[in-house]
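Tokens in:
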């Protein structure tokens, strides 16, 4: 199915919740849970509940709703839970979207392929398994930074590499950077922007832009070193093979 490419990295597709069609969703492999905007939930008259989720190593109290049915291309999920929030408050990239499709939906597939040149996304299912709940809530790959292996979540909702500063300094007490660090922001989160030499995602080492965020790296799926945005791969086409647990790109 086609998608819109927002800010050169956000993949936005059309979908449906209940009777509301023509909704816009960010495809975000870095999000364990799918998200619905408050105004959409209000139109559907959904009842909200409270619960806590772990986000960037902080427990956040969130509202939670059960939607009658979610449809995205070939994906159809009945009666699923979604985080309820006002998306414009959490990201400037989410102001004109109605929700976020996370790994609770995407990892039900065998493969997820994103063609950035043709602006097409494809989702492959094993016959009869599209409606089954998945236990995979993150796609984690090894990356070598200055000779040390770290584990990053492949995150289509981010542009570049994001690393937990405390974990990186513990693993690399003599971390090398090129140029001067700069203060920046990741949504509402303050970060430090650096250029890291000696980064090997595959093949030869390269100097890679990265954002350093304060925190322990403790997440809902255990300890992680950070997140890998597709722009770091310079990918024309990206494939997440959930069945084989392999990341491929061109």
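Residues out:
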């Amino acid at each position: 199915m086609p998608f819109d490419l927002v800010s050169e990295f956000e993949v936005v597709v059309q979908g449906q919740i209940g009777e509301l069609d023509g909704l816009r969703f960010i495809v975000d492999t870095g999000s364990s849970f799918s998200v619905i905007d408050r105004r959409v939930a209000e139109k559907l008259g959904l009842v909200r509940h409270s619960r806590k989720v772990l986000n960037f190593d902080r427990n956040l109290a969130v509202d939670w709703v059960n939607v009658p049915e979610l449809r995205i291309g070939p994906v159809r999920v009945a009666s699923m839970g979604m985080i309820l929030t006002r998306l414009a408050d959490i990201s400037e990239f989410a102001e004109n979207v109605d929700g976020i499709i996370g790994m609770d939906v995407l990892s039900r597939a065998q493969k997820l392929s994103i063609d950035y040149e043709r602006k097409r996304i494809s989702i492959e299912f094993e016959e009869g398994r599209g409606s089954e709940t998945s236990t995979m809530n993150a796609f984690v790959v090894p990356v070598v930074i200055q000779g040390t292996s770290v584990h990053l979540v492949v995150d289509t909702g981010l542009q570049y590499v994001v690393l937990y500063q405390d974990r990186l300094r513990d693993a690399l007490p003599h971390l090398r950077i090129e140029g001067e660090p700069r203060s920046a922001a990741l949504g509402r989160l303050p970060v430090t922007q650096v250029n890291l030499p000696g980064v090997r995602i595959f093949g030869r080492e390269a100097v890679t832009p990265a954002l350093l965020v304060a925190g322990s790296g403790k997440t809902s799926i255990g300890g992680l070193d950070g997140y890998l945005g597709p722009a770091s791969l310079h990918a024309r086409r990206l494939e997440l093979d959930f069945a084989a647990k392999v990341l491929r790109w061109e």
